[in-house]
């Protein structure tokens, strides 16, 4: 083998397409852009969603609804889930960190406790929000309820 014999594989290298270099090249005069119109001009770029003059899809389909940017999205955790965790794992305090460790919610999600199911254990619960009935049910069994925001204020 010799460096002077090295060459790219046959068909892997293609010559550049030289536009606008006279009639003999087969690509002179209009340089493959056809005659007149926006597409033949320099600086042309087609708008996103352009459908050849037909009314584009984003304008044919009617608008509906809106997305509230101030909405706070909670993950619902019911009382029966808390009861199951308290009995299976022997927990007396349930916090968002405990729920993450048990795989009930993910790390960045906000937790809201809802009143579905029964609670028999006396537990203290820390969460981002509570429904009124869930709060009553936890306190009726001798447990305590705290919001995460209240805890942060106490620690500061």
Description:
The protein contains five helices and six strands, in the order αβαβαβββαβα. The chain has 156 residues and is α/β, with parallel strands linked by helices. The model has no long low-confidence stretch (mean pLDDT 91). The strands form two sheets. The protein has a three-stranded parallel β-sheet. It has a three-stranded parallel β-sheet with strand order 2-4-6. The chain has helices spanning 57-60, 79-89, 96-101, 132-140, 148-155; strands spanning 74-78, 93-94, 110-114, 124-127, 129-130, 144-147. Helices cover 24% and strands 14% of the residues.
Describe this structure in a few short sentences.
The protein is an alpha/beta fold and 156 residues long. The chain is built from five helices and six strands.
Secondary structure: elements and pairs:
Blueprint: H1 57-60, E1 74-78, H2 79-89, E2 93-94, H3 96-101, E3 110-114, E4 124-127, E5 129-130, H4 132-140, E6 144-147, H5 148-155
Number of strands: 6
Biggest sheet features: 3 strands, parallel
Task: Give me the secondary-structure category.
Answer: alpha/beta
The overall pLDDT, averaged over residues, is 91
Helix fraction?
A: 10-25%
Oligomer: single chain
Low-confidence stretches: none
Coarse shape: elongated
Give the helices and strands as they follow along the chain: HEHEHEEEHEH
Distance between the termini: 75 Å
- Tell me what portion of residues adopts beta-strand conformation: 5-15%
Q: How large, in whole angstroms, is the Cα Rg?
A: 34 Å
Tally of helical runs:
5
Strand order of the largest sheet: 1-3-5
């Amino acid at each position: 083998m010799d460096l002077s014999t090295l060459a790219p594989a046959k068909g892997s290298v293609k010559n550049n397409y030289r536009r606008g270099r006279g009639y003999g090249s087969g690509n002179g005069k209009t340089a493959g852009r056809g005659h007149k119109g926006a597409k033949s001009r320099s600086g042309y770029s087609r708008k996103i969603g352009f459908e050849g003059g037909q009314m584009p899809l984003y304008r044919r389909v009617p608008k509906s609804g809106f997305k509230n940017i101030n909405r706070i999205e909670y993950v619902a955790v019911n009382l029966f889930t808390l009861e199951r965790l308290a009995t299976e794992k022997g927990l007396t305090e349930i916090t968002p960190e405990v729920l993450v460790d048990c795989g009930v919610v993910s790390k960045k999600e906000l937790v809201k406790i809802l009143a579905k199911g029964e609670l028999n254990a006396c537990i203290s619960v820390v969460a981002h929000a509570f429904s009124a009935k869930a709060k009553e049910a936890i306190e009726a069994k001798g447990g305590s309820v705290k919001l995460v925001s209240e805890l942060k204020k106490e620690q500061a």
